[in-house]
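Because discrete structure vocabularies remain unfamiliar, we reproduce here a specimen of the format, pairing a chain with its fold in token form:
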Amino acid sequence: MPSFRKAAVLLPFLAATSIAHAAWPERPIVMVVPQPPGGAADAFARPFAQALSQRLGQPVVIENRAGANGNIAAAYVTKQAADGYTIFFGSVSTLAVNPHLYRSPGFDTFKDFQPITLTNQTPNVLVVNAASPYRTIADVVAAAKAAPGALNFGSAGNGNTMHLTGVLFQQKTGTTLTHVPYKGGPAALTDVLGGQIPMMFHNLNAVLAYEKSGKVRILAVADNKRAPLLPNVPTMKEAGAPGVVQVPWSGMLVRAGTPQPIVDRLSKEMVEILKSQSFRAMHEAQGTEVLSSTPAEFAERIKTDYNAMGALIKSANVNID
């Protein structure tokens, strides 16, 4: 067929495709959250979905699919059409950690997802019971070196970022601690509050209220900068544990292969929400740092942390429960 005839055949198709993308969205959108209702991820996703709904002119419905550290939700999203009507609220745990821990997580981080934007991050911190003798990182290191393996730390379970912060802490400080995995961060924190275990590595926003009420002490922040809400608490480097940096992030993604005009529209609207002062203030007051990025910047962050987490897990021979 002559080239001009091929072009004539293609023109109606391209015009129809362009119109379809311009009309998107024409029905409700589902935002899949890989944690149960009421958790920290859900608390961020719901107001975000409401704001996105207002900007797109269609309902954005939250669908909680908890389990397997996010694998169930991620695998579910890969089974949906690449049409922009399913959004995944992914995290470093699911996208950068799980592929190194599970033989068959049910998804491929790089082949199955199109990043849209980073949304938020919260550094992990070392938190101790207020009645414990530990007031500085130096106190913890000294105790751990005096009796290797005798000092316990809790986490939300084997292989999560809290556990991996503890692994990194041991590597960088030359200490040996005993990891006590729990079924979730709240359970571990309950035992820190009750004195059953002396300390744990946890997300800042999960322990901030307890620190303000005097029930725990936050010894250091696993970040390169101090937390704005805790200006007197040092970073790990400042406290004598350089290299202990663990700042878990979350972000919005869609299926790989989603048409570029839809990706561009989602990127534009989501970034506008994330840059809104009213939206930022609501979450930053809880210790969450609100972020935004281009799809390419988010993709690079995933790749960097995927490689770093893989190396850490391999070096420490971390296994899941």
The domain at 124-239 is CATH 3.40.190.10 (D-Maltodextrin-Binding Protein; domain 2).
